[in-house]
Specification:
two-stranded parallel sheet, two-stranded antiparallel ribbon, isomerase (chains A, B, C, D, E, F), homohexamer, alpha+beta, Macrophage Migration Inhibitory Factor, about 30% helix, 4-oxalocrotonate tautomerase (chains A, B, C, D, E, F), 1 helix
Chain lengths: ~60, ~60, ~60, ~60, ~60, ~60
């Protein structure tokens, strides 16, 4: 623990996601007082036709 | 907020999912007293070989 | 299936949540072609100090 | 109910996953006092580039 | 990894939940080829008024 | 979007959680190219008797 699940619109590059994972891990190590290897981060990349805001899919916008 | 995650068997059409997203948003606007754009709906389409009921995968039925 | 998880700010009344559950079930029966008893809805009521938007907790707003 | 979501690294065979679903269902029937068909198990197979431990993706290890 | 989240109706005893956690861990060690300490199990105990089946909360049944 | 859910052992202070929310939001704004208010972070604080690692609850350790 902790376990972080990130639901986000697909399309971010490997470099972006690596940086996100690195920084979030550092944030939790520093502020939640845990070891780096205790931090698990899961990315759920979602297609625009699977995310709706205000009743409309992102693929409709 | 609110955030609604729908886990369902893959295969619904875009039209079906659009109608589901539209109606669920209306339901929450009306009953949870929120603005439409505050409502986020995420669809997790799952393959039949990733859903088990009664110890058997849907792909086995 | 389907399984719907609703993450929302705590505080809605039982009446509001009953109406939400009723309408969402009807929406999925009508549009996803499933039986009412196949629809499971889970409410995760969250405290304002456990929901952050724009880097601030709702309890700070 | 109960609903079990399993987040795991993609790559397990159908046979492995069938056995996992079968045994977990038996465990819950025996220990949670529920009927087999009440137990729903969802598998979220994740790519190694979507799982980070200690700030590094499994695809980097 | 793997990470198992169990959504269930509150009320199971500590003994029941210990046995569930023990057996599910064994199942994954045996069938998913992982070490015991790699298996994380999270229990989300839900109140009957937060679980709806067929449009009705368990607290209404 | 994005939506971040953090499952963690209960007990972190408000100050710790505010700093976590602030830094994670900054990380996503910078690396996922989104606006701060688009970032939603949900904390699921779990009791030690609801988290099992290696088949044992944290409350047993």
């Amino acid at each position: 623990m902790p376990i972080i699940t990130i639901e986000l619109l697909e399309g971010r590059s490997e470099v972006q996601k690596k940086q996100i994972a690195k920084e979030i891990t550092e944030t939790l190590v520093k502020n939640a007082n845990v070891k780096p290897e205790a931090v698990t981060i899961l990315f759920h990349d979602l297609k625009p036709e699977n995310i709706a805001k205000g009743g409309k899919f992102l693929s409709e916008k």
